[in-house]
């Protein structure tokens, strides 16, 4: 298992982590992701640890806390072997303070996550989304206090706009507060918006990227192909709801390119899609999901080898998209904005 440094921190993480959004299956939304319970989760953790994957990602909002509870039970007795990341800020109740990134909510959310996870510390704590109502310094001071208390180790941001993240980093520097060392965001061969602003920002500021939904919300598993409908899996079960939109023709063009490379290399479509991401600047970790052991083992096959420059060029060409303004305009200033910051 390859390990990479997580942003401007001393922490090294495996290039793959197991996302536990499939744990629990509570509610209509997460029910379409999966319904893994403790016994199967324990087996998935066994497989991960056997392969050197000791990083597990969850969130309080996943199945209304059930994902954290199941992960905590699956790791019981071996917490010291694992790294855990979880998230807060999305709604966990009906009260006005049951969401957001205020000090009030974060302190309580962290304590609740620790209890569900059956642990006394969280290695990496993410703000799941940007809260424009809470002052940035209030959020960072609350996180700093949780770090000082030993309840969290490192902090990260997820789903922030570029200016959200940069404002937070500047605030950390201004007041001498802990800074976000990681950004968890959506990035895939059918969703390359991350490259326009967040990637250059991460390069400039030393922020490591954890990629969520690296298979494009389940569309790059190889089950969806030109001229045939997907007969199984999350997408077939209606799991595309809430996911990033993608034009059908664009999807098919990318899958065609993936299939071509996969056949030539003796790999699967998802293995090639994941390996492409591991070649991208700033990417420290991919959060892979698995509804069962078979899917997990297949995803683990994405590491230990690398795409060639020609194969990467093929996938780049099939997945390229025109950036929004002002990013397409900035690309004309090549000599002052060289690759990889303008990818």
Mean pLDDT: 94
Strand-residue proportion: 5-15%
**What is the chains' assembly state?**
single chain
In angstroms, what separates the terminal alpha carbons?
27 Å
Largest β sheet strand count, sense and barrel closure: 8 strands, parallel, barrel
What spatial form do the alpha-carbon principal axes imply?
Answer: globular
| Total beta strand runs | 10
**Number of discrete helical segments:** 12
> What is the helix fraction of residues, given as a range?
25-40%
- The SSE order reads EEEHHEHEHEHEHEHEHHEHHH
Identify low-pLDDT runs: none
Q: What is the radius of gyration?
A: 20 Å
Kindly report the spatial arrangement of strands forming the biggest sheet: 3-4-5-6-7-8-9-10
Class of secondary structure makeup? alpha/beta
Concise synopsis of the structure shown:
This protein is 37% helix and 15% strand.
What brief labels describe this structure?
343 residues, alpha/beta
Task: Summarize the structure in words.
By secondary structure, this protein is α/β, with parallel strands linked by helices. It has twelve helices and ten strands. It has an eight-stranded parallel beta barrel, surrounded by six helices. Strands 1-2 form a two-stranded antiparallel ribbon. The longest helix is centred in the last third of the chain and has 18 residues, at 248-265. The radius of gyration is 20 Å and the shape is globular. It starts with a strand and ends in a 13-residue tail after the last helix.
């Amino acid at each position: 298992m390859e390990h990479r440094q997580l942003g401007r921190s001393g922490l090294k993480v495996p290039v793959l982590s197991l996302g536990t959004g499939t744990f629990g299956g509570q509610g209509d939304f997460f029910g379409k992701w999966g319904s893994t319970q403790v016994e199967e989760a324990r087996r998935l953790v066994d497989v991960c640890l056997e392969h050197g994957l000791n990083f597990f990602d969850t969130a309080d909002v996943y199945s209304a806390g059930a994902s954290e509870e199941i992960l905590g039970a699956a790791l019981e007795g071996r917490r010291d072997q694992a790294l855990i990341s979880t998230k807060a800020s999305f709604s966990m109740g009906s009260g006005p303070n049951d969401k957001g990134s205020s000090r009030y909510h974060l302190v309580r959310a962290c304590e609740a996550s620790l209890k569900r996870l059956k642990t006394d510390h969280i290695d990496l704590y993410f703000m799941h989304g940007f809260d424009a109502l809470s002052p940035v310094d209030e959020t960072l001071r609350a996180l700093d206090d949780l770090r000082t208390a030993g309840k969290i180790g490192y902090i990260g941001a997820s789903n922030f706009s570029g200016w959200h993240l940069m404002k937070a980093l500047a605030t950390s520097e201004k007041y001498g507060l802990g800074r976000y060392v990681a950004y968890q965001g959506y990035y895939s061969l059918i969703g390359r918006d991350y490259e326009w602003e967040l990637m250059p920002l991460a390069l400039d500021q030393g922020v490591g990227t954890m990629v969520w939904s690296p298979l494009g919300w389940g569309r790059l598993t190889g089950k969806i192909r030109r001229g045939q409908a997907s007969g199984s899996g999350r997408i077939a079960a209606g799991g595309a709801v809430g996911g990033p939109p993608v034009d059908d023709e664009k999807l098919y063009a990318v899958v065609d390119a993936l299939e071509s490379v996969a056949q030539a290399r003796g790999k699967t479509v998802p293995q090639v899609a994941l390996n492409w991401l591991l070649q991208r600047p700033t990417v420290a970790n991919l959060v892979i999901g698995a509804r069962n052991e078979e899917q997990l083992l297949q995803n683990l096959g994405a590491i230990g080898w690398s795409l060639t420059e020609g194969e990467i060029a093929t996938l780049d060409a099939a997945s390229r998209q025109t950036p929004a303004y002002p990013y397409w305009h900035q690309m004309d200033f090549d000599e002052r904005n060289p690759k990889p910051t303008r990818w």
